[in-house]
Amino acid sequence: MLRHAGIRRRTAYGALIGTFAASAVVLAPGWGQAAGGPSAPAGQAPVPSAGATLATGERLEVVPRRGKSAPGFRVVPKSQGEQPGRYAYSVMDGKLQVQPVGLRKPARSTTVGIGSPTRSAPAPRAAYSVKIQLTGTDHFGPIIQVWNRKTWVSHEVDEEQFGSSGKVSLPPGDYITVGMYNNWQQPDHILTKTFTVKDRGLTVTFDPALAKEAAITADDPSARRASAAVSLRMPNGDIVGFLGGWGNKVYATPFSLPGASLRVHEVLVKEGSAANTPSPYRYDLYRNFPGGVPASPRAQVRTADLARTVTTLRAAGDDTTGWFSSYPSVSDSSGVYLPTPVRFPSTVTEYATPGQAFGRMLSYDGGPTVTAEPRTLPQGAGPAETFGAAPFAVRSFPPSGAVRRADKLEVYEPWAFTDSLGHAGSDYDSVQDFLLTSRGTKLAETKDLETPKVWSATVPRAQAPYELTQTVRHTGRPTRLSTRQTTEWGFVSDGYGGGPTDELPLADVDVRVDGLDARNAAGASPVTVEALATTRGLGATASVTGLEYSADDGATWTALPVADTGGRATAELSVPQNARYVSLRVSGKDSQGSTVRRTVVRAFVGPAPAADETVGSIRITNVVVNNGRVIAPVMYDDPNREPYTVRYTVSDPAGVANTGVILHRSDPGRPDAVIRTWTPACTPVDATTSTCEAPFQLNARGQLGRNDLAGEWKAAVWARSLDGRSFTDRSDLATAQILRETRVTITAPTVAVTKGKAFAVSGIAGIADWSTGRWNALPGKAVQLEFRRPGTSAYTIAAHVTADATGTVKAAPKAAYDANWRWLLPRTPGVGAAASPVVFVDVR
């Protein structure tokens, strides 16, 4: 009965239209539109349209860009870690190839089709085998590309998946090859070599010793590289390079070639920042080195010479973590989005290369995304900007997504979570219902249509009045605001006998609210509600006709006075102090007779504190985190580590539609830290009950970043029934102890000791420092020395010792009999337990 379990996974950037497990994916026509359907709005960033699962389990998303021939792409992490891993990539001949790099074991690459191939190498009349290899290092798993330097036709290379070479069959000619090599805990290399094929085969060798580091650094000593994209653009437009984080260095071979360029995008954040301790600033630095790779492909900038602005990130009803992604908007290049973690709500100071356009995307973790068109800033302080201002609603951007095609009406309005400042927002945890009537007769009805999809209905070809109702329902917990939006249009559409596509003459209304805080919440002071009316009717004028609010999710409505001010009306609203949420409804019309009424349930947060909710008969029981065991997270990501789990049971007479889990600390309304799990996998027990398991990975350095976050955490769980009538959101259904990892070493005699004589046992106690990613000594810690005789299972305490200032513990027990010895660090508040390795001491 669970509608989506195991089918669609929500990621840190929101959900995709679909999940693709294959290694090659071909995108749908129109970049995120149905074939033959309306195109994505020309005035806003387009909807992410397709992707694939990488070998690491992370997601590759392809994102088309307005006015650009090449799409952008981004890598979405599986969990809430500091950022995605590192990748080599190439964009050429209609394909995007991405390969995880820097792993202990090499991983296979993934190829995604991004358009029709532009060229291909003709079958050679005479060809010779060319081996391309690396020497002088043990890098492995390359991506190798080869082009003819005159025709710029590319030739496919058969690469050694887990080696360092490749082979290609080439006819006589002049060529250039680029190889991207990597290895565990070593710098990445983009190596280049030109060569000529004459009348026999040959071996081409890359020399990594010739490569130079490519980077942009700032004069801020607290800044570190969070992520970077270093790429070569060849004269024909093909692009190869590396992207990703972890501060890894990238080296490139200097060369000179007209039309080629080296492009470096660096994102810097404050040292020590993490998902729950985000950086207060963000550097977006870009440099294009034309003509190839210079002898010194490095640049240093002064903070005082950069553009500077402060950006406010408002919460969408929940305090949560998320991602701030950006890419340099260059007309002849693919946009590679580089993410850094942020908190909602918060402010971040942006420093950017002046004069360079950067596109940006903000993603609420596990929920919707809000995008902005590329922005270019001059040097110096610039105007502040705000993302995520409520109310969030469906908004149409020109050209319209509602058209008439002969005997069909088509609606494509994917921007279901656009903020009131006009930043286009998408939420793939939302569905749409449509109802079309004419003169009281129902012509078409659709329920639960995924928001990005085009809706269409066949209508009579004669002129007729229509009533179209669109309802958007947000089904994920991160979108506590704008949980339900309903737009009711009335209009007249002309009849067509197969003529051109025309925009439907719809009237539109929008609403803005001034006086809300960074959580989109009203306080004791009144707020100002502004209603705006527009029209898509040619030559028509629009006006606001009504404005109402509700403090009980739309059960009752109160009218606000609206003066006859045409297309704009404002009203002051004193929000009831007992209201947790405020809903808004605004009506309008235009001079051609079209009408509209839009209702936004939970448009913004009220003054009353957040509280648990349960509507209907749905219930959540038996919540257990990590099987009741303590969680001592590793310092850094470990993809081979089994994830933790939250297990629970959900029941409702109608069955379960969807559910989710969040771990949080302190006040559930204003937590000081959150951990969002992956989409739960739920198994039906019967028609009414499902058992669910929500996995999550946790690394202390990338996700927590503060030692004071150790201690008790709580599990918040929400669920929705299959019929949509029941919903529950409970903030404290289980607890979990997330503690700092400790360790202790042991040193004991390795040769036999004499019975009755004392022997020395020592060790060093250490503890994980979540703020630095290092291990620190643990002075003053009570440690006990224990032994166990062979053939027994229980340990006996031999001594209690307190660690000195360096964390060292020492004891001198007397030798009595053969035994296994160890140090044990008992668990204390905020600190996990640990045992040293066991050492056998032979007594004679």
Determine the mean pLDDT.
Answer: 86
- Helix count, per DSSP? 1
According to DSSP, the number of beta strands is 66
Total number of domains = 4
Estimate the helix proportion, in percent.
under 10%
The biggest beta sheet reads:
12 strands, mixed
Strand content: over 45%
Which structural category do the helix and sheet elements fall into?
mainly beta
Shape: globular
The low-confidence runs, each spanning 5 or more residues with pLDDT under 50, are 1-46
Cα-based radius of gyration, to the nearest Å:
30 Å
- From the N-terminal CA to the C-terminal CA, the straight-line distance is 68 Å
Can you describe what's shown?
The protein folds into four domains: 24-29 and 44-387, no CATH class; 402-605, no CATH class; 613-738, Immunoglobulin-like (Sandwich); 742-841, SOR catalytic domain (Immunoglobulin-like, Sandwich). Strands 1, 5, 6, 7, 18, 19, 21, 22, 24, 28, 31 and 32 form a twelve-stranded mixed beta sheet that branches. An eight-stranded antiparallel beta sheet has the order 37-36-39-40-48-47-44-45, with no helix packed on it. The chain has a six-stranded mixed beta sheet with strand order 10-9-13-14-20-16, with no helix packed on it. 1% of the residues lie in helices and 50% in strands. The protein is built from one helix and 66 strands.
